[in-house]
Design a protein that fits this description.
The chain is α/β, with parallel strands linked by helices. Helix content is 24%, strand content 25%.
């Protein structure tokens, strides 16, 4: 029987730049493929490597001093399974995931970040009702009611609003101003910045 493989876009070691764990060193396993098509997605899924669990473990062993692993994408719930998480746990890793929330998340995951980026979809498609944190990307078009809806739908310890990076100075400045204003008026939300982009770290 052929050993199962996972479509991996990239594996790298850096700092977590967003949300609760911002500033913490982390090993990122980025999966290829997503069930949404967000216009601001910054990941190219055209190229990927088919990797077995053993090959993934060998790849992240280079940074074994860091026991914090982040499963991201794309949408990692399209591929990961209980065996994947168990192997990481057996090796002593703390496993975090960033998901768009449209698919069930394995209960074995240690930290769940729900980041419902495709805001215009029907909120009824969200399948995750409880998470550790919710992080929603804001631009100049998303109605504030969207954020209120996610606050009501997903129960979490913390809620973050994150400015969308358009790649242009003026729109970015306007979006940041809008985010700050929103958090000041809605203090149950917090501001999350993409520190990795600000600091230009990889």
């Amino acid at each position: 029987m052929k050993e199962k493989t996972y479509r991996i876009n990239e594996i790298f070691y850096s700092l977590q730049g967003e949300g609760r764990w911002a500033g913490r060193a982390a090993v990122f396993i980025r999966f290829s493929g997503c069930n949404l098509k967000c216009p601001f997605c910054d990941t190219d899924f055209k190229e990927y490597t088919e990797m077995t669990l053993a090959e993934i473990l060998a790849a992240i062993a280079e940074w074994r001093s860091c026991a914090f692993v982040v499963l991201t994408g794309g949408e990692p719930t399209l591929q990961i399974d209980k065996d994947f998480v168990k192997v990481l746990h057996d090796e002593g890793y703390y496993v975090a995931i960033e998901t768009n929330g449209t698919r069930e998340v394995l209960p074995e995951i240690d930290w769940i970040t729900v980041s419902p980026k495709d805001w215009y979809i029907d909120k009824s498609v969200l399948r995750v009702e409880k998470a550790d944190e919710v992080k929603v990307v804001m631009d100049n078009q998303i109605p504030e009611a969207v954020f209120d809806a996610f606050y009501d739908i997903v129960s979490a310890e913390a809620y973050y609003v994150q400015p969308c990076d358009t790649g242009f100075l003026k729109p970015n400045s306007d979006i940041i101003e809008r985010c700050v204003d929103y958090v000041k008026r809605n203090p149950h939300w917090r501001l999350s910045l993409q520190q990795q982009k600000i600091l230009k770290v990889r």
